[in-house]
Amino acid sequence: DAGVIQSPRHEVTEMGQEVTLRCKPISGHDYLFWYRQTMMRGLELLIYFNNNVPIDDSGMPEDRFSAKMPNASFSTLKIQPSEPRDSAVYFCASSRQGYGYTFGSGTRLTVV
Amino acid sequence: DAKTTQPPSMDCAEGRAANLPCNHSTISGNEYVYWYRQIHSQGPQYIIHGLKNNETNEMASLIITEDRKSSTLILPHATLRDTAVYYCIVSPAGNNRKLIWGLGTSLAVNP
To answer: CB of A78 within 8 A of CB of A20?
Structure first.
């Protein structure tokens, strides 16, 4: 298995632009999580899905953030419009019930 | 709010056992203890988890005290590649859906 695949690995964008981060979970995993990591706040859960359905989005910072999971093999996290304070590493992870998470390699987002 | 307490940093000599402590004095009866680690610039990696019994896998051993208020992750023969931040997390009802991540322990394995 190739693991959890995230793209792009690095993204540099200008303030106000739309940013879309992509994630392919491990086949057979029915949970998908989006996390954000910064030095100041550590790892924060943004949203998670179960069987493609959003279960808890209470960690999404504001309406500028949205996430979708149109099928079991793909999810996106969109930021529109982006702001410099959104700069962070964004991780996607997947799991099966009762098992540990498998994380992707992350997307390092820089908003200038 | 993190429900665990870990020392911010530890050192260990290569080849020796690394014993990483975690305090979770408010753990509930149905909460599991999970351990993850994060090597620099990578995503966190699952290590092991347990409820009340000690657990062992190919990566590490997890020792949970009888009262479940603390645990220790043991890396039996630490290598330089074990240098990472180690996170101890308690999760409600055995599901790992909403893990609350603290600051972890930064382990440095020295040659």
So the answer is: yes
